[in-house]
Structure formats: C-alpha cells, structure tokens
Amino acid sequence: MQGSPIREKLYRGEVSIGSWLNLASPGAAEVLASVGFDWLVVDAEHSQWDLDLIAHAFRAIEAQGAVPMARTWSDDPTALGRLLDAGARGIVIPHVSTPEQAEAIARSMRYPPRGDRSAGSGRAVLTADDYRSVIDDEVLVIPQIENMEGVRNIDGIMAVEGVDVAFLGPNDLGLSMGLSPAEFGKDSRHLDAIAAVLEGAKRAGKPAGLPAANPDDAKRLIEQGFLMIDLSNDLRMLQGTATAWLEELKS
C-alpha cells in the first residue's frame, strides 16, 4: 500500500469512475465492486449503515479490488477516525464551506506530525504491514461543496494542504440557492456555481468530482473537465432496472 491509486490516476488527468452505496448491503457493495468500479462510497450520511455493516462492506470492496471509501455523517474527528479505523481509504465530508473547516478535517485524517488523528487498533491496522506509516499518503480527503459559501471559498478550500478532490453536492447546492429540483442542472445560477467549483479546483491543480445519474450525464461531465465521477448508486440502479424491465413486460 503505497500512495493512493485513485489520487495518482486523477492527478494524471485520468477519469476515475465509482459509485455510491445506499442500500446498507455489503452484498450490493461486493456486486458493484466486482464489475470494475475504481472505488465505492458507503453513504453513512443518508443511509442505514452501522459501523459493523460498513466494515463488512469495506471487506467486500477490498476483496474485489476496488477502493473502499465512505461519506461521513459528521466532520467530527471521532466520526472520521472511526470510519478510517474501519478501513476507509478516503472520506467524502459533506457541507464543507470554509478553508478552516477543510484544514481541520485534513488534519483529523492524518497521524502526527502531519495531523491529529488518534492511534487505535481498528480493523484498518490489519490491512497493511505497517498501516500507520503508509495511510497518510494513501487516504483521500474529499470535501463536498454544497452551498454558496463553499463555492465562494473554493480557492481557499482547495489550497489547504492535504485536501485532494473538490466534490460537488449539486442537489444540496441547488436547495441552498432556493431552487426547485426541476431547476437543478438547468438554472444558469446553478450551472455557474458548479463551473466555479470546477475552475477553483483546476486553479489549485486538483481534480473535481460530481455525481452522474446515468452514462450520458457522466460523459457530459467528463467533457466539462470533471474527473471523479460518481455513477449513480446501488438503490437507483436496482430501482431503475427493475422499473424498466417490469414496464417492458407489462407493455
């Protein structure tokens, strides 16, 4: 375990495609990891994951050769530490709005002297011969920009040492702007804010990411310059396929 293969890929200017896990199912994690996604993010913010299930999902993802990550429910150092100790190789942190917040997060995710992470004996220490000596170079710190304060502060956030990727939360961003869901991705103010985050990341020499609902959306985002693409999630994939197949049979 030397460095992050995802960071290396992104910083070469290559696209990295992963997905989100919302079904709280290690089995679903294993299935998606087996098809070739680079990484999978356990959504501990919005889904019914507990830490035991999260650890099982990480095992399943690792076994299939993908990189296990999580979206945390809090930027509290204890929450970040528990996800890292369970085996996360990267964490998406929602609602990051200021450089000060980003700096505190980056330090919470690395051991002294680079940061303030507390040493413990979670399952992560079993995943490498000398976990604590290598994880600081591997872990991905991914602030999620979800309001206009974060958009305005994008240069400062991405200038923070240890911050790796600017990841947008377009739906919460749209809600924070007073837009309706029907206006997300269509209103010029929403599109301008998304573009501002992408440009801010580029000025810092760092990649930006965004969720894509389907392959056509993903292709459009890649053409715009986004490199870290979250292609839907297990819940929507299951729902969409089941709906389409049932409608086809009924017709």
Model description:
It is built from twelve helices and eight strands. The protein has 251 residues and is of the alpha/beta class. It has an eight-stranded parallel barrel, surrounded by eight helices.
List keywords for this structure.
single chain; 251 residues; alpha/beta; eight-stranded parallel barrel; globular
Largest sheet: 8 strands, parallel, barrel
Spatially, the strands of the biggest sheet line up as 1-2-3-4-5-6-7-8
What does the radius of gyration come to?
18 Å
Give the topology string: H per helix, E per strand. HEHEHEHEHHEHHEHHEHEH
User: Overall 3D geometry?
Assistant: globular
Q: Averaged pLDDT, please?
A: 97
Distance between the termini: 52 Å
Helix segment tally: 12
Percent of residues in helical segments? 40-55%
Strand coverage percent = 15-25%
**How many β strands by DSSP?**
8
Low-confidence stretches: none
How does the helix and strand content classify structurally?
alpha/beta
